[in-house]
Amino acid sequence: MTTLHDAAGPELTAAQLYAILRLRSEVFVVEQDCVYADIDGRDLPADTRHLWLTGEDGELLAYLRVLTDPGGLRRIGRVVTARAARGRGLAARLMAAALADATGEFVLDAQTYAQGLYARFGFVPEGEEFLEDGIPHRTMRRPAKDGAVG
Predict the structure, then answer these.
(1) Is 50 within the bounds of a domain?
(2) In a domain, 149, yes or no
(3) What radius of gyration do the chain's Cα atoms show?
(4) 69 — alpha (psi -120 to 50), left (phi > 0) or beta?
(5) CATH code (residue 93)
(6) Residue 79 lies in a domain
């Protein structure tokens, strides 16, 4: 059994933020061998939304964040699942929660192998594939629903 958590940046406890940063570091920096500035100043603003799943023991299993870019465009990023929790549909569950009742446009930069996951939620590839930290990515956009903007 997993539990879904949803918090704005200022609502995160120190322990929650630590667990999030630890998981992101374990996967993106260590496992994927990408040295990059993960602590980018965008985790704590009030308009940043964090969603994560924990197991029965409280361990962080999967995470994503939703940012508001200049102009109001919402951006999904840092989608990550702990190695031991992969293959259980946790990233899809987080995506569904992040997009529930959302009508505005969303954008994300998908690792190329994960495009199928995002396509299931209405994201369409745009532009050319590009390398980010040595990993192929593709920008994907989900148009606004019901004529909504941003």
Answers:
(1) yes
(2) no
(3) 15
(4) beta
(5) 3.40.630.30
(6) yes
Taking the CB of residue 66, how many other CB atoms lie within 10 A of it? 21
**Edge-to-edge order in the sheet of strand 135-142:** 3-8, 49-54, 60-68, 74-81, 106-111, 135-142, 124-132
Kindly report the pTM of this predicted structure. 0.91
Residue 147 included in any domain = no
Give the residue numbers spanning the domain of 33.
3-142
At 46, list the tokens.
Answer: 């009030």
Per residue in 11-35, is it b (16+ CB within 10 Å) or e — as a string?
A: ebeeebeebbeebbeebbeeeeeee
pLDDT digits (tens, 9 = 90+) for 19-50: 999 999 999 888 888 777 788 989 999 999 99
- In the structure, what pLDDT confidence band is assigned to residue 150 with cuts at 50, 70 and 90? very low
pLDDT digits (tens, 9 = 90+) for 88-106: 999 999 999 999 988 889 9
